[in-house]
Write a structure and sequence with these properties.
Helix content is 27%, strand content 28%. With 308 residues, the chain is of the alpha/beta class. Helix 1 runs parallel beside helix 6.
Length: 308
């Protein structure tokens, strides 16, 4: 029986941990994160899953310490896996497993290396993404690819909906390639890094709506940041406007100089700098729901620019 140490968090961590166990891998240790009380926890718990299966579990603030390294060495793993673990693992940890270290990444590498790949793929208007199992090294997401599985991004999918698909893709690709990893027949293929680029993390402030954005780009921006993420927003005199759900709805002429919120046929809409119109299906203003009636009460029905 092959053994492994697993660094994992989030839904992908849970599903991939269960896939290893179902394939008969002896998971000797799970390393995870304690949930941050400042963060909205909408995903499953790796810690609880490990405890259910009576697997030793630790949650260090920093995985790259002598104490954690000693625990991993004591486990004497054949493999090390990282499944949506949020910290980079240093060379000493990666050198411990006798048969290699592997990471599951939520994109079709080499595209969207780095942080929050699902959100970035939607912002950039991609029509598919997926999950990739690759060899780990000290550079993020650039090791040779073991296997990957693609899923579609439909035109109105939110980031949560796409992430759910990527979670399934991660489980499927791990299930598919594990037999070859375990019997030694897997042949990872080096990435052509010129076919993609690295993307950094995103902060809530990065959700500010650009003034000159076109309608399709704004729709992608909104759905990439919809709940449980912080939302696409504009700061108005009456408070923070957050757009949660939109749908493209034709073209309006003449186009405004920059995106603006309007009432059109007694419906809330955004008209963008390219003339494209978005129906606003859900929005909040200063934390309260915003619809046609409350917009009229707050602004008297006049168009409101989204950039001040």
């Amino acid at each position: 029986m092959s053994s492994a140490v697993v660094f994992a968090y989030h839904d992908v961590g849970v599903r991939c941990l269960k896939a290893l166990l179902a394939r008969g891998v002896d998971v000797a240790l799970v390393v995870t994160h304690d949930d941050d009380p400042r963060e909205q926890i909408w995903f499953d718990s790796v810690r609880r899953t490990a405890e259910d299966y009576r697997i030793p579990v630790i949650a260090p603030d920093d995985p790259n310490t002598a104490e954690v390294l000693d625990r991993v060495r004591e486990a004497r793993p054949d493999f090390l896996f990282s499944f949506y673990y949020r910290s980079m693992l240093g060379a000493p940890l990666l050198a411990v497993p006798t048969r290699g270290a592997y990471n599951m990444h939520g994109s079709l590498l080499p595209k969207y290396r780095g942080r929050v790949p699902v959100n970035w793929a939607i912002i950039e208007g991609e029509t598919e993404t997926g999950a990739t199992l690759h060899v780990m090294n000290e550079k993020p997401d650039n090791g040779a690819i073991v296997d990957q599985f693609a899923v579609p991004i439909l035109p109105d999918d939110t980031a949560r909906e796409v992430f759910d698909k990527v979670c399934v893709a991660a489980e499927l690709v791990l299930w598919r390639c594990l037999p070859a990893l375990l019997d030694g027949s897997a042949r990872p293929v080096p990435q052509d890094l010129s076919l993609g680029r690295y993307h950094g993390g995103r902060r809530p402030e990065d959700g500010r709506i650009p003034a000159g954005i076109g309608a399709r780009r704004l729709h992608d921006f909104v759905r990439a940041l919809a709940r449980p993420y912080p939302g696409a927003f504009a700061d108005l005199a009456a408070g923070r406007l957050v757009l949660w759900r939109t749908l493209p709805d034709g073209v309006i002429a003449p186009a405004p100089a920059s995106a603006e919120l309007r009432l059109i046929d007694d419906e809330l809409a955004v008209v963008c700098a390219d003339g494209g119109k978005l129906r606003v299906l859900e929005a909040t203003l200063a934390g309260a729901p915003l619809d046609a009636g409350s917009f009229r009460a707050a602004f008297g029905g006049a168009p409101i620019p989204l950039a001040r």
